[in-house]
Amino acid sequence: MLKFVKNHMESITGIEIYPLISLVIFFTFFVALFWWVFTARKEYISKVSNIPLDH
C-alpha cells in the first residue's frame, strides 16, 4: 500500500514543496505559541486559570 502511494506521489509534479510548506507552518505556529506563552502577563494567566473554579 505504501509503495503504491509513494509511486503515485512521485509522479505528481511540484509536490516536493508541500512537505516544506507544512514544516514552515508547523515551526511558525509553535514559535508563535512559545513567544505568546513567555510574554503573557501573569495577571491574565491567573485570571484565565481561575475561570473553571468560578461559579
Topology:
Blueprint: H1 2-10, H2 17-39, H3 42-49
Rg from Cα: 21 Å
**Proportion of residues in helical segments:** over 70%
Mean pLDDT: 87
Element string (H = helix, E = strand) = HHH
Number of helices: 3
| Count of β-strands | 0
- Estimate what percentage of residues fall within beta strands: under 5%
Largest sheet, described in full?
none
Report low-confidence residues grouped into runs of 5 or more.
none
Distance between the termini: 53 Å
Overall shape: it is elongated
Which class of secondary structure composition applies to the elements? mainly alpha
Molecular structure report:
The chain has 55 residues and is mainly α. It starts with a helix and ends in a 6-residue tail after the last helix. The model has no long low-confidence stretch (mean pLDDT 87). The chain contains three helices and no strands. The protein is elongated. Helices cover 73% and strands 0% of the residues.
Keywords, separated by commas or semicolons:
elongated, 55 residues, mainly alpha
A few lines on this structure:
By secondary structure, the chain is mostly helical. 73% of the residues lie in helices and 0% in strands.
